[in-house]
Amino acid sequence: EHLTSLKYKVMWGMQQALHRYEFSYFIKTDDDIAVNLPLLITELITLPREHYNTGNCYMLFGGFSGYPMWYYCSGGGYILTHDVVHMIQQLPSTVHEVQFRPEDAYTGYLVAKVRKLLGYAVQRENKGKLCLTYYKCGLFTKWFYHRASTVKRHVKLHERIKSNDTILCDERK
To answer: Is the four-CA dihedral 10, 15, 19, 21 of positive or negative sign?
Structure first.
């Protein structure tokens, strides 16, 4: 699939989730992410259940072609509460017709529009729970581990989990 179509896939996922499931949180990850489910579930219990968007939310996008700048949560893994997903679906169709990528910035744009156009307060919190390249971060401190989809990296990650190793070393060494 092409990067420009991902935003439609995510919007379709949000729409389907609203119509088919009862949920408190909508969690989106990239296809090369391993999820630390025990930690994620433990921490979800403590998170707000309304007006909330979290993940690695330090990313800045926009400032071109007449778009303002806004912060968004990295597509590696982010979380939206049910009400925010519902409010995104309530936005006017013209808001959804923007022509930019990536999809995570697009989702952040929609959250910003929920705030501005609908006057709906959404708390964005940078939880910093995405471990990016080479697993230099602690194994039991992150929700999402990026680039874990290769067989070699997945096996190494699994071996570290089984051995209760709390620190993952840089694979390049």
So the answer is: positive
Burial 19-47 (b: 16+ CB within 10 A, else e): eeeeeebbbbbbeebbbbeebbeeeeeee
Q: Which of 8, 26, 32, 137 is nearest to 73 (CA)?
A: 26
pTM of the model: 0.79
pLDDT digits (tens, 9 = 90+) for 83-131: 999 999 999 988 877 776 688 888 888 998 898 888 888 888 877 676 6
Neighbour count for residue 110 (Cβ, 10 Å)? 27
